[in-house]
Amino acid sequence: MVKFEDLSKYRGELMGLAILFVILFHIGMPQSNFFYPLRRLGNIGVDMFLFVSGMGLWFSWTRSRLGKKLDGNGAMGIRQATIRFFKHRYKRIYPVWIIVASVFYIGKYVEAPGSGYSPDIPNLIANVLFNWSFWRIDDLTFWYVPATMMLYIFAPGYMELVRERPSYRWLPVAFIILAAMVRYVPLIHNSVGHLEIFFSRIPIFFIGINAGKWVMEKRTLEKGSIWMIVIIFAMSLWLCLQLEYIGHRRFPLFMERIVYIPLTVTALLLECKLIAVMPKNINRVLTMLGTISLEIYLIHIQFVMLPLQQYKLGYCVTALLVIVISTPVAYLLHWIIEKVMGCRVFRILQ
After folding, report:
1. Cβ pair 62, 163 in contact under 8 A
2. C-beta atoms surrounding 232 within 10 Å
3. Considering the entire predicted model, what is its pTM?
4. Per-residue pLDDT band at 249 (split at 50, 70, 90)
5. DSSP secondary structure letter of residue 176
6. Membrane-spanning regions, if any (predicted)?
């Protein structure tokens, strides 16, 4: 039997696996390597984050609107719930973002004034505040963070809409069409085509929100459904690998990112089955990695991986070192921010 509630039960472990996939995707590997296409599939770690994040948002929003026990007691109005939503979401992201973005973008500006990242002071300030260079020139240095913050802006409206009008849960289909339009309609492509990586990830985020309802209601699929999930997973995996073996530059990335949608959903459900039988110590490690996944994401490329790659240690050694070095640094940063945000002055400000 497939239990959708397992997606919530193992949320921490799933996010831990997702950040490991992202790290393995970022480590350099020659395209001639037989495992290069498999390494490329680590890209679905981003889709896993977005799906699980969307799922969690549905829990938070529903409990705000209906009360913690969903019985109306303690229910908030839309305005109050929306304020609470943004306060909680950005409180998690913004402190660590401001620290890392300041170190990186100010450092790059001092090192090379007028560079592509920040050609002037206003652009530098905008980069530190919300990674303006991602929206301006498709700067992928920390793209997941500004993309997520943008998706958060539309999440409350979407969740309230589908709560009142369930038929609008089909909107992710429209978002898939929008992603195709960004890729293939010249007028749209010429305007925002450089943000294809963002538009092609919008559907999985809102599908995650939709799935949150199934998770909250503890819905299940009959026992034999596992084979349907395995078949869809295998088909999606095979197609993605085929596209990569054909050649990374010979097809629009949009095609593969859309296939990531069924691959991500089925992979998460199968991972839940695997996590359920894994040793508890491994689960604890994955949960810890999931807890500090934002910090690991922001640290591991620019501050750990790129300096290590100059030593040409090979894929496996570099990947291991990136994980081993990034994890304690990320944990320390997470701990410091938690302590600072929990101090009396910040509690008063909040």
Report:
1. yes
2. 16
3. 0.94
4. low
5. H
6. 12-29, 41-61, 93-110, 141-161, 168-185, 197-215, 227-246, 258-278, 285-306, 312-337
